[in-house]
UniProtKB/TrEMBL annotation:
A Gene Ontology BP annotation from the UniProt entry: proteolysis
Protein origin, superkingdom: Eukaryota
GO function terms (MF aspect): aspartic-type endopeptidase activity
Family the entry assigns: Belongs to the peptidase A1 family.
Entry keywords, A to Z: Aspartyl protease, Disulfide bond, Hydrolase, Protease, Signal
UniProt keyword Hydrolase present: yes
Protein's UniProt name: Aspartic peptidase A1 family
Organism for this UniProt entry: Artemisia annua (Sweet wormwood)
InterPro entries listed in its UniProt record: Aspartic_peptidase_A1, CND41-like, PEPTIDASE_A1, Peptidase_aspartic_dom_sf, TAXi_C, TAXi_N
Keyword Hydrolase annotated: yes
Residues covered by the Peptidase A1 domain: 134-470
Pfam assignment, any one: TAXi_N
Signal peptide (UniProt feature, chain positions): 1-22
Catalytic site positions: 152, 353
Length: 475
């Protein structure tokens, strides 16, 4: 072989291999790109299984309570005490909760504008329990009695139904708490500063009955609880006990609390459990909501178990000092940044709420989101809307689906990557809906709901004024 021919042969080999390598890299890049911006998943992973598989992560940490979905195989609530709600009922309750949050904020805004003073809640604050999906079980009194309480970052006072139910009690799973059977129970006097503190914690001026302080809370759907303001020993776990915990001992309780013995208030007010537990845990708590009703999550007080990779975004107090408000900047769908002017989010504001199910966005933002999502999902057949959810797919012919990832970017460049279970609300395989809804007006408050928070460890560091997200908090 002549040297020139050899050279050409050699060069061709070289070029060819280079070309092959280049092509390989190109292919790799596309696969990476795919994986980076899309989820490929088994359809069955969106559905709860018929048996409970408790999440093992997090259950051994200090001050940690197991979080369970009310309806599902991990729930101990029997279906004759609480009947599962239909999707329609869940969305109706969810809308009521959103309306009441809005009414509360409108009231606060008005008050701030006219008086420039500290916000107090209106007499009819219109808070609502909503569908109260998640609960934890705590011990109250001595000897302690277990009580399952709905947990709620949107309100402050913790309360439970109490015997003798002087007015009325609705049916609950566990026996109703009997103060007379607890050696550590104490009534609070009408003249105490804690009694006056009820005004900001409940939105109502406290009453007084035979020198015992009386609290009252109405909820937007005409649910309410009224009773004695009291203290007793609260047992979170065997090692985590709060003595003299302030709570409402409800004598007259009515409404949609569906089987739970009451509510645990995780708001920012000084009577919330977060403030009352501050001495022991700092004003820090975290929770993780399970991916489906057949798994469990946790609620942890204090900073134990906070993931090292948690990314924080600052809390603001522009909407009052009870709700947790955050600053949303951008939304990405399958790697595409939605063309939404930042002023859309800054005008509406946004809170994170454990009790609202579906995330609410300003209509301008929601339409950009659903438009882009639909554009990237054209290979799947759309189906009928489900109440407030208008982007629904029929996946009955699929076992595996590929869907665009959705990320929400918050102030401080903190990215929240939603898991597939945080993108969809599943009615059935033939109606799987994008779990976001638009508000009526761009000035209405946005709400990050609990579907989108699934499997994320959400950390509330109230003292440091920040909320953080870490993925993979629970299964
Ligand atoms: C708490 O106050 C109510 C109303 O005054 C009274 O009926 C009840 O016996 C009191 N309980 C205790 C333990 O003092
Ligand atoms: C969609 O809605 C139409 C009209 O209400 C109804 O006839 C049809 O059965 C619905 N389809 C599905 C898949 O639910
Ligand atoms: C599922 O596949 C069958 C058979 O190909 C087809 O007739 C039907 O329209 C498909 N249904 C959906 C919802 O895609």
């Amino acid at each position: 072989m002549a040297p020139s021919k050899f050279l050409i042969f050699f060069l061709s080999c070289f070029l060819l291999s280079f070309f092959v390598i280049a092509r390989k890299e190109l292919a790799l890049e596309t696969t990476d790109e795919q994986e980076h911006h899309y989820h490929t998943l088994q359809l069955s992973s969106l559905l709860p299984s018929s048996t409970c598989n408790p999440s093992t992560k997090g259950d051994k940490r200090k001050g940690s309570l197991e979080v369970v979905h009310k309806h599902g195989p991990c729930s101990k609530f029997s279906e004759d005490v609480i009947k599962p709600l239909t999707a329609e009922e869940i969305f109706t309750n969810d809308e009521s909760r959103v309306h009441s949050i809005r009414a509360r904020l409108t009231f606060n805004k008005g008050k701030k504008d006219t008086q420039g003073s500290k916000v107090t809640l209106p007499a009819k604050s219109g808070e609502i329990i909503g569908s109260g999906n998640y609960f934890v079980t705590v011990g109250l009194g001595t000897p302690k009695k277990d009580l399952s309480l709905t947990f709620d970052t949107g309100s402050d006072l913790t309360w439970t139904q109490c015997q003798p139910c002087a007015g009325s009690c609705y049916s609950q799973q566990e026996p109703i708490f009997a103060p007379s059977a607890s050696t550590t129970y104490k009534n609070i006097s009408c003249t105490s500063t804690e009694c006056s503190g009820l005004t900001s914690a409940t939105g109502n001026t406290p009453g007084c009955s035979s020198s015992t302080c009386v609290y009252g809370i109405q909820y937007g759907d005409r649910s309410f609880t009224v009773g004695f303001f009291a203290t007793d020993k609260l047992t979170l776990t065997s090692n985590d006990v709060i003595d003299n915990f302030y709570f409402g001992c409800g004598q007259n309780n009515q409404g949609l609390f569906s089987g739970a013995a009451g509510l645990i208030g995780l708001g920012r007010d000084k009577l919330s459990i977060v403030s009352q537990a501050a001495k022991k845990y700092g004003k820090v708590f975290s929770y993780c909501l399970p991916s489906t009703a057949s798994s469990t999550g946790y609620l942890t007080f204090g900073s134990s178990g906070v993931a090292s990779g948690v990314m924080y975004t600052p809390l603001s107090t522009s909407l009052g000092d009870s709700l947790y408000d955050l600053d949303l900047k951008y939304i990405y769908v399958g790697g595409t940044k939605l063309p939404i002017s930042p002023s859309v989010f800054s005008t509406s504001g946004m809170i994170i709420d454990s009790g609202t199910v579906i995330t609410r966005l300003p209509p301008t933002a929601y339409s950009a989101l659903s438009k882009e999502f639909r554009a990237q999902m054209t290979k799947y057949p759309l189906t009928n809307a489900s109440s407030i959810l208008d982007t629904c797919y029929d996946f009955s012919n699929y076992t595996t689906i590929t869907i665009p990832k959705i990320s929400m970017v918050w102030s401080g460049n903190t990215k929240l990557d939603l898991v597939p279970q945080g993108i969809f609300y599943v009615n059935s395989v033939s109606q799987v809906c994008l779990a976001f809804a638009g508000n009526r007006d761009d000035s209405d408050i946005g709400i990050l709901g609990n579907v989108q928070q699934k499997t994320i460890q959400v950390v509330y560091d109230v003292d440091a004024g920040k909320v953080g997200f870490a993925s993979g908090g629970c299964a």
